[in-house]
Amino acid sequence: MELEFHGYCTLCESPFLPFLEQGMGRVSEAEGGIPEGEEKKVAEGMPMGKEAPNSPRTSLSLRGKAHVGSPMKVKRELHPLQNRWALWFFKNDRSRAWQDNLHLVTKVDTVEDFWALYSHIQLASKLSSGCDYALFKDGIEPMWEDSKNKWGGRWLVSLAKQQRHIELDRLWLETLLCLIGESFEEHSRDVCGAVVNIRTKGDKIAVWTREAENQAGVLHIGRVYKEHLGLSPKTVIGYQAHADTATKSNSLAKNKFVV
């Protein structure tokens, strides 16, 4: 059975080694962070504004400029996320069992911890072919067999090879912000997580949902996701049920829905 993840991770080869060595910690005002108004919006599950299509919510600058202040200054109030999220990593190693290639990096439950994590790992575009990042709600593993994924599917965005160094990082960051910001309103509860696959033939980004037969919810998530990515109205993205993808190659799996 072929899954989207293949690979293993050891600390010496990890793209998040600096993060593991230094510890994520909390982003204090002295260390810098995203603008106060924006971090509150993310924490409250509010949209972060209508920026230009090519900007992932004002791009990476959401992390903000560093603020140099007194060391005695009180730390800023942390902004909790609505859900706790877990970051996973894979690296291709077909000599190992698939489950042995799964590596849990860490879990985050505040806006500040998310940006600290994002700042300490390599960008998706810098990963080698066969590697994957996945951000899933705590308690859900990034595999089809998980009970919360089993009957679900994914909105899939396929990228051409030349887009890796032009669009990939922006699209992946925007995907992460959609997740932690609960951008899909009441349908956010149906979102399980998201995956980015780095592949030689072309990278992929997918948002996973828990119930493929929930047409109204799936279509709402797809429309909102496409809008936040800033994709052209002429660009079509498809939703594939995991049950179909598990029995067929990705190229043969039919789209259950499109937006």
Structure description:
- The structure is a single chain.
- By secondary structure, this protein is of the alpha+beta class.
- Helix content is 24%, strand content 19%.
- It has helices at residues 17-22, 36-43, 111-120, 164-180, 215-229, 242-247; strands at 80-90, 103-110, 132-137, 153-158, 191-197, 204-209, 238-241, 257-258.
- An 8-stranded antiparallel sheet has the order 2-1-3-5-6-4-7-8.
- Strand 5 (191-197) and strand 6 form a beta hairpin.
- The longest helix has 17 residues, at 164-180.
- It comes from Saguinus oedipus (Cotton-top tamarin).
- GO terms for molecular function: translation initiation factor activity.
Main structural class = alpha+beta
How many distinct helices? Answer: 6
In this structure, how is the largest beta sheet organized? 8 strands, antiparallel
Cα gyration radius (Å): 18 Å
**Unreliable runs:** 1-13, 16-70
Output mean pLDDT: 79
Q: Based on CA inertia axes, which overall geometry fits?
A: globular
Strand order of the largest sheet: 2-1-3-5-6-4-7-8
Tell me the helix content.
Answer: 10-25%
Order of helices and strands: HHEEHEEHEEHEHE
- Beta strand count: 8
Oligomer: single chain
Beta-strand content bin: 15-25%
End-to-end gap = 28 Å
Keywords: Initiation factor, Protein biosynthesis, RNA-binding
GO molecular function, one term: translation initiation factor activity
InterPro entries: TIF_eIF4e-like, TIF_eIF_4E, TIF_eIF_4E_CS
Pfam family, one: IF4E
List strands and helices in order, with pairings.
Blueprint: H1 17-22, H2 36-43, E1 80-90, E2 103-110, H3 111-120, E3 132-137, E4 153-158, H4 164-180, E5 191-197, E6 204-209, H5 215-229, E7 238-241, H6 242-247, E8 257-258
